[in-house]
Amino acid sequence: MKTIEKIEKENLVELKFSKKEVLQDDLKKKRRTFDLMRAQALGNLLKNKVNITFETADERIFQVNTTVWSVGSEYVTLKQNLFIPINAILEVE
Fold it and tell me: What is the pTM of this model?
């Protein structure tokens, strides 16, 4: 198992993301979508933060604690107009 590195959301702009899907299992993809929608509701209604664990193009694993503002078809939008590609997200908690 790879080490999970904590990162501040302001440092996300320094990372490069791959176009590959990090989850291969359809059930895990559905769970990720459900968790992202829940995180969006928590962020918009209650200003709650969630931990998003994701993989970068160089296959490093990071975790950011942030508020999810919106979930699109390809990207998650965070505060300060920052984005994470959905295909890079391993887990939302």
Answer: 0.95
